[in-house]
Amino acid sequence: MAQDGKRGVTYQTVDAGYFEKRGLTRYAGVASLWALGVGAVISGHFSGWNFGFSTGGWGGMLVAGMIIAVMYLGLTFSIAEMSAALPHTGAAYSFARTAMGPWGGFFTGLCENVEYVITPAVVVTFITAYINSIFGFDPAYSPLVWIVFFAIFVGLNVFGLELSFKVTMVVTLISLAVLIFFWVSAIPHMDFNRWALNIGVGPDGAAVELPEGGGSWFPFGFSGVLATLPFAVWLFLAIEQLPLAAEESVDPARDMPKGIILGMITLMVSAFMIVLLNPSVVGVGSFKLSSSLEPLLDGLKAVYGDTGVVLLGCVALTGLIASFHTILYAQGRQIYSLSRAGYFPRGLSITHPTFRTPYVAMIVGSIVGLGVMLIIWFALGAEEAGASIGSVLLNMAVSGAMFSYIAQAASFILLRRNAPHIKRPYRSPFGVVGAALTIVIAIVTLGYQVQDPNFTKGVLWVLVWFAIATVYFALVGRHKLVLSPEEEFAQSKGEVVYRTH
User: Which residues are listed as membrane-spanning (predicted)?
Assistant: First the structure.
């Protein structure tokens, strides 16, 4: 046992079997990492992003998307550099642990934990909305749909890394094919001026429909652009999960930067196409999409009619399923890394003896996410919860993400300044400037998120989450830390890159 008085933590010695029970398998190459990154985000191109039309109009959504793309470029190039230099499953926690010590690592990991436990809950609410629309199910039974989807996709993630990555690749490719199919279908049915620009501003300052279109690109002005930033985040949210696969990557120093950058390029192209085409389809429009839970399905129905609604709806579900599956993967690895190092209870990091997957972390994380959903559902009542649960959860996920982005960008700047000796197989072309822009845009996004009344509800849940976890770490976790790969790297000041225990 070793104490670090300056840091206020204690490291305990563990036996040789500790890491044997927590082993992972290397499998992922560039293609698998690309699919993991794109698959995690792609649901945001099927649902969620479109709520921004109500705060910014079409032009506001476009410019907000560009600003958020700049934030994510700064972030992804920063984490590409850090993940190649620190190839550990801990990702955000690992970066912050090396840059800011155990407490900095813990709080950064906690922010990311909120994001990865809650984001699957957000996605499954959109999945449920699509299913209810397709098959005409009563929304009162939505919790049953949540439970079924969690059970199926946690199971797929548990039963082997190779299976999980193959499923990820298949559903990601299908999702992109669906989007391309929609783009090609939508182009002949576009009337941009009439439908994309059909939002005006009413006497109360809220969005109103312009029956003939022809409205302003920016009906709410520049403040509307800024108010739309939290919704534009959904076009890229979770691409930063890729470093969580570092210890399951064949060559993380080489492949991780390539996977992140290729994924970001793919998502920027897709984001522009969906923002342009979905509201421009005749019969759809920005105003209708501003409150739709299934915007892509609305676009497909407008082009092909209701005759094939079941088939079209099932096709439109693929993107949501891709993200649900891949973020459950990230959730498991994120909890696993914090548990293996002792920040969370150590039992959460035990891996399956046959499949070598962190099954305990995935099951417990999913139960927590599902539990939050059920508490909100029964506390508010089915009718009110059905209308607001997705927005509350989305605000929880986005707020956790913004805090983790600020911490990761700050970690990048600190590592550049204080640890120039660390070997960096890849260096961000945007450097400190890119990381600083990430911080500024994330802070502005949080500032405008506060103006959403659902943010208050969401952030209260996040604060409860933080309070419980902080009490545990202060009283228990900080006295039971383990020299996992992330901790060894930080303790050695970068001399120990990775060691198989």
Answer: 27-46, 58-80, 141-160, 167-187, 217-239, 260-287, 307-330, 359-380, 392-415, 427-446, 458-476
